[in-house]
Write a structure and sequence with these properties.
Length: 974
Amino acid sequence: MANLGLFSGTKSVKSVNVSFRLPYYTQWGQSLIVCGSEPVLGSWNVKKGLLLSPVHVGEELVWCGRIALPNGFSCEYTYYVVDDGKNLLRWEMGKKHKLLLPESVQGGELVELHDLWQTGADDLPFRSAFKNVVFQASWSLKVERPLGVLQNKLDQEDSALVHFKICCPNIEEETSVYVIGSTAKLGQWKVQDGLRLSYAGDSIWQADCLIPKGDFPMKYKYCKYSKAGNFALETGSNRDLSIDFSNGQPNYIFLSDGMLREMPWRGAGVAIPMFSLRSETDLGVGEFLDLKLLVDWSVESGFHLVQLLPINDTSVNGMWWDSYPYSSLSVFALHPLYLRVQALSENFPEDIKIEIHEAKERLDGKDVDYEATLATKLSIAKKVFAFEKDLILNSSSFQKYFSENEEWLKPYAAFCFLRDFFETSDHSQWGRFSNYSKVKLEKLVSKDSLHYDIICFHYYIQFHLHLQLSEAAEYARKKGVILKGDLPIGVDRNSVDTWVYPNLFRMNTSTGAPPDYFDKNGQNWGFPTYNWEEMSKDNYAWWRGRLTQMAKYFTAYRIDHILGFFRIWELPDHAMTGLIGKFRPSIPLSQEELEREGIWDFNRLSCPYIRKEFLQEKFGASWTLIASNFLNEYQKDRYEFKEDCNTERKIASKLNSFAERSLLFEKEEKIRSDLFDLLKNIVLIRNSEDARKFYPRFNLEDTSSFKDLDDHSKNVLKRLYYDYYFQRQEDLWRKNALETLPVLLNSSDMLACGEDLGLIPACVHPVMQELGLIGLRIQRMPSEPGLEFGIPSQYSYMTVCAPSCHDCSTLRAWWEEDEERRRRFFKAVVGSDALPPGQCVPEIAYYIIRQHFEAPSMWAIFPLQDMLALKEEYTTRPAAEETINDPTNPKHYWRYRVHVTLESLMKDKELKTTIKDLVCGSGRSYPPLAEAVKQANEATSAITLEKQKVASGLDKISIAPQLNGAQRKETLAV
């Protein structure tokens, strides 16, 4: 790129006048700046960029600015929105604009750059999910003419050379892009006479045309045109090009017209946890190499995507609690549970072959036996390692893997060794190893250490997991299937990451679910919160490393609980339940603010409000015993907690060792819960770091402390409560997300989706839209107020729609859970007043699933269990057993296994054809199939043909509802 410093003060060089033009609507007090990679455009310092001025062109607001540049100049640039003080408010997402002044452009000439503001959605086709998987054939086109080269010359004074540029990431074989329009130079709307564009690489098509001054203003459109003579004109209204000749005629007009407008691409996928897969080869749990079979089934069913839950190592507690996949021991290491031990070697001793065979039979149960399966795999792997370690560890492939991953691999292996040695993952119990240091680490993992073989065993396991997952990932990519991973919002308190990077986490607090996610017991999950300020110091290197590692295997990912990047619900470390918390970050209520409103008794509001009658009501005859042991009477009939039990953890500890528990009339669990309720009977939470700042307690109106206040105080506190939770934080949370989320998005080229269920602040969806993040829509959890059930046909394009997910019951189980709700659904969604069937028969499942396939959402992703509900043969297992997670139980055992093998599903042509017909009938894209498979799919069964009639518009289904113990056939219009 040119160094503009060379041109300063050089009068002999005649500059090219470059004019920027961008249509964009701003709010009052906002302006646009163009900033770029070269000094003349600020060297990416926005305050030094070129400030643009607004001009009204018809109904559009166009921002313009002019600058003199040397001939042949090149740079990258981006547009930014700033306030009056040039403070950054927002900026373009996606790929940066490129300015390449062709050598043929002479000094003194005027060049106009007509740009469009780029959103995150404009960048989606450049993500690996599309670029390297779905549209991979389009990206392999041969470059015909690179950017910055003009084929035509400006040789007429009454003409302008217009350079057309359009992005078209998805194009069929032997198809070109044309521009047609109102001028004769563009064929006067005849495609065969239009202007053919040349391919410039990176999905960009370009052409230039000398257009007479009299042809302006002109209208035009882009279209795809095949050698067979077929063409597809872009959708939407005509594009307009008007030229203002009053300030001198522009010689060159460079049009950057964004994306070719066509029907939005839509695809479908299947979701299943890694551990839930069942194959004829696995040992009691799904394994990475099973993904190849799942990919084959997905391709033949028309699915472009396979979605998994997190696959990182969670071996924290050494028991079945570790089945919870969102509590990572390491955000980099893969879980040994998913290792295929048969693939570790080609030369197994006979005794190991027998052991594997016996283990397969023993572990092949209805559900995953987490502890037995993991122990068995590690035991077998250790035996294989014993005779193959030298061969593997000295291989060039291992050495390459080790050198690329040692930054996290060494600490991980050392942590696993110390965890097993000290019999705990709580690194605060590790003596001199409690505080991590590189010096200590290198001694632990050195070749001279007595336990070097143990360290190498963990290297060995991770290496083979990497090989097996990489094989499956590459297989999926070649088959046109996106592998979608899951990014947990938290890590375990006792993890490698909190040991190695303690400054990145707030370990004196724990992250509970936000108020809208509380389970029925008010339990929280105990994740440490992130120290975003510390993370920002190295531009979030930990997050960037995490995403880079993930991108080795996945081409898309789901951001678990995306609200955590806006704000997180934070609890003190002494909390065992989740109500007495606050949002981080958030703007608290100041003492001055409260005093202005007439609120002054802060001890009364922020300390537990305990009256004698409360104790009598809760504890009955035991109240005096409770009061004497846990409370002090500080004034007549008013109590406060003693110092040794003034937190939830202290209460639990004291109750556990309570000598007089035999005198209590209630169970310990009930006593503890009631004491916790007293402790939480407050209205304001005092900031532990600044006693003059307060946070309103969640659901403060439900407390007796609030109910006993005067009306003035109630009204003030209700208003401030609403302001804290729903208004004053919005701008802060928006800024927080716009600082952190782009780091994730720019750390890899994976396609990103965000789980945005629950109570969503107003700032969330606009930020997700701005960043090009795809949201989630579950029909039974509508985001629209006043709706009990979502309406898939009204979902926006930038969403993933699904009838259920891993955090709720399956479609079948949900249908059977609640008869009244089932009737409401049948009336509201199906449009029938008839009695719905008691079970989710295949016809009902088909109707609901078809709704989701036909939704406008970019993705329709279905749990495998819901797909199996399409066929009666697969509904013999009780529906409740197919639920993956029960969010109301913080110690839920994640162990669901599909009750049918992948090999059996591959043989079921009827089910695959049914699903494929739904994909095709809904207009969604599907992976290309081999000719033999296509022919096989054409041999449809009579049942499938009947369902095709439904998909093609004969919208009647036959259902068999339960009525007074008998079945009767009914035909209902749906």
